[in-house]
Amino acid sequence: MGENASLASQPLSATDARLKIYRTSELMAAGASARVTIDGKERGSLGNGESTLLDLPAGSHKIVVDYWGHPGAYAITLQAKPGLLYTLEIAPREDAVMAGALLGTVGMLVEASVNENGGAFRLRVVSAEPIKR
Protein backbone atom coordinates (compact mmCIF):
# COMPACT_ATOMS: atom_id res chain seq x y z
CA MET A 1 0.00 0.00 0.00
CA GLY A 2 2.68 2.50 1.05
CA GLU A 3 2.48 6.29 1.24
CA ASN A 4 0.83 7.72 -1.87
CA ALA A 5 2.92 10.90 -2.03
CA SER A 6 1.57 11.97 -5.43
CA LEU A 7 -1.97 12.18 -4.01
CA ALA A 8 -0.80 14.58 -1.29
CA SER A 9 0.16 17.16 -3.93
CA GLN A 10 -3.11 16.85 -5.87
CA PRO A 11 -6.17 18.96 -5.10
CA LEU A 12 -9.10 17.22 -3.46
CA SER A 13 -12.38 17.07 -5.39
CA ALA A 14 -15.09 19.23 -3.80
CA THR A 15 -17.22 16.11 -3.25
CA ASP A 16 -14.48 13.94 -1.69
CA ALA A 17 -12.77 13.39 1.63
CA ARG A 18 -9.15 12.25 2.01
CA LEU A 19 -7.99 9.50 4.35
CA LYS A 20 -4.52 9.13 5.75
CA ILE A 21 -4.26 5.66 7.23
CA TYR A 22 -1.13 4.84 9.18
CA ARG A 23 0.04 1.84 11.12
CA THR A 24 1.95 2.37 14.34
CA SER A 25 5.50 1.04 14.64
CA GLU A 26 5.36 -1.47 17.46
CA LEU A 27 7.12 -4.69 18.24
CA MET A 28 3.81 -6.39 19.03
CA ALA A 29 2.36 -7.92 15.82
CA ALA A 30 5.20 -6.36 13.82
CA GLY A 31 5.38 -9.31 11.41
CA ALA A 32 1.70 -9.21 10.48
CA SER A 33 0.36 -7.03 7.65
CA ALA A 34 -2.89 -5.22 8.44
CA ARG A 35 -5.33 -5.63 5.54
CA VAL A 36 -7.58 -2.60 4.92
CA THR A 37 -11.02 -3.02 3.34
CA ILE A 38 -13.33 -0.11 2.57
CA ASP A 39 -16.97 -0.78 1.70
CA GLY A 40 -16.17 -4.43 1.02
CA LYS A 41 -13.28 -3.70 -1.38
CA GLU A 42 -9.74 -4.59 -0.32
CA ARG A 43 -7.58 -1.49 -0.59
CA GLY A 44 -4.27 -3.12 0.34
CA SER A 45 -2.29 -3.82 3.48
CA LEU A 46 0.05 -1.91 5.75
CA GLY A 47 3.17 -3.25 7.33
CA ASN A 48 4.66 -1.95 10.56
CA GLY A 49 5.12 1.85 10.32
CA GLU A 50 3.60 2.22 6.83
CA SER A 51 0.92 4.67 5.73
CA THR A 52 -1.19 5.57 2.72
CA LEU A 53 -3.50 8.28 1.39
CA LEU A 54 -6.86 7.61 -0.26
CA ASP A 55 -9.64 9.81 -1.60
CA LEU A 56 -13.25 8.72 -1.06
CA PRO A 57 -16.59 10.27 -1.94
CA ALA A 58 -18.23 11.97 1.02
CA GLY A 59 -20.73 9.79 2.86
CA SER A 60 -20.84 6.69 5.03
CA HIS A 61 -18.01 4.18 4.63
CA LYS A 62 -17.35 0.93 6.47
CA ILE A 63 -13.62 0.56 7.08
CA VAL A 64 -12.33 -2.81 8.26
CA VAL A 65 -8.87 -3.89 9.33
CA ASP A 66 -7.88 -7.52 9.76
CA TYR A 67 -5.05 -10.02 9.40
CA TRP A 68 -5.36 -13.27 7.46
CA GLY A 69 -3.83 -15.30 10.31
CA HIS A 70 -6.23 -14.14 13.02
CA PRO A 71 -9.98 -14.65 13.35
CA GLY A 72 -12.15 -11.60 13.61
CA ALA A 73 -11.83 -8.06 12.32
CA TYR A 74 -12.11 -4.52 13.62
CA ALA A 75 -14.57 -2.22 11.84
CA ILE A 76 -15.65 1.39 12.07
CA THR A 77 -18.17 3.41 10.10
CA LEU A 78 -16.85 6.78 9.00
CA GLN A 79 -19.30 9.54 8.07
CA ALA A 80 -16.90 11.34 5.73
CA LYS A 81 -17.56 15.00 4.99
CA PRO A 82 -16.24 16.67 1.83
CA GLY A 83 -13.06 18.72 2.13
CA LEU A 84 -11.80 16.99 5.28
CA LEU A 85 -8.62 15.00 5.86
CA TYR A 86 -9.27 12.09 8.21
CA THR A 87 -6.28 10.51 9.93
CA LEU A 88 -6.86 6.89 10.95
CA GLU A 89 -4.55 4.84 13.13
CA ILE A 90 -4.07 1.07 13.00
CA ALA A 91 -2.45 -0.48 16.07
CA PRO A 92 -2.18 -3.99 17.54
CA ARG A 93 -4.92 -5.09 19.95
CA GLU A 94 -3.03 -6.24 23.02
CA ASP A 95 -5.85 -8.56 24.19
CA ALA A 96 -5.85 -10.43 20.88
CA VAL A 97 -2.08 -10.76 20.68
CA MET A 98 -1.81 -11.97 24.29
CA ALA A 99 -4.65 -14.50 23.86
CA GLY A 100 -2.84 -15.96 20.87
CA ALA A 101 0.53 -15.96 22.59
CA LEU A 102 -0.80 -17.67 25.72
CA LEU A 103 -3.40 -20.07 24.29
CA GLY A 104 -2.62 -20.31 20.56
CA THR A 105 -5.41 -20.68 18.03
CA VAL A 106 -7.98 -21.58 20.69
CA GLY A 107 -7.18 -18.39 22.59
CA MET A 108 -7.53 -16.29 19.42
CA LEU A 109 -10.88 -17.91 18.58
CA VAL A 110 -12.27 -17.38 22.08
CA GLU A 111 -11.06 -13.78 22.24
CA ALA A 112 -12.52 -13.02 18.79
CA SER A 113 -15.88 -14.60 19.66
CA VAL A 114 -16.44 -12.42 22.74
CA ASN A 115 -15.55 -9.10 21.06
CA GLU A 116 -17.71 -7.40 18.47
CA ASN A 117 -14.56 -5.68 17.25
CA GLY A 118 -11.97 -8.44 17.38
CA GLY A 119 -8.95 -9.28 15.30
CA ALA A 120 -5.28 -8.57 15.69
CA PHE A 121 -5.59 -4.79 15.13
CA ARG A 122 -7.77 -1.87 16.20
CA LEU A 123 -8.68 1.13 14.09
CA ARG A 124 -9.52 4.63 15.28
CA VAL A 125 -10.00 8.13 13.88
CA VAL A 126 -7.26 10.33 15.29
CA SER A 127 -8.29 13.61 13.64
CA ALA A 128 -10.53 15.25 11.05
CA GLU A 129 -9.25 18.56 9.68
CA PRO A 130 -10.12 20.78 6.72
CA ILE A 131 -7.70 20.43 3.81
CA LYS A 132 -5.99 23.72 3.02
CA ARG A 133 -6.62 24.79 -0.54
Which key features would you list for this structure?
133 residues; alpha+beta; four-stranded mixed β-sheet; four-stranded antiparallel β-sheet; 2 helices; 18% helix; globular
Low-confidence stretches: 99-103
Q: Major sheet: size, sense and barrel closure?
A: 4 strands, mixed
Total E-strand runs: 8
Look at the helices and sheets and give the structural class.
alpha+beta
* Rounded average pLDDT: 81
Shape summary: globular
Percent of residues in β-strands: over 45%
Helix content: 10-25%
| Spatial gap, N to C terminus | 26 Å
Tally of helical runs: 2
Order of helices and strands: HEEEEEEEHE
Q: Indicate the radius of gyration in whole angstroms.
A: 15 Å
User: Biggest sheet, strands in spatial order?
Assistant: 4-1-7-8
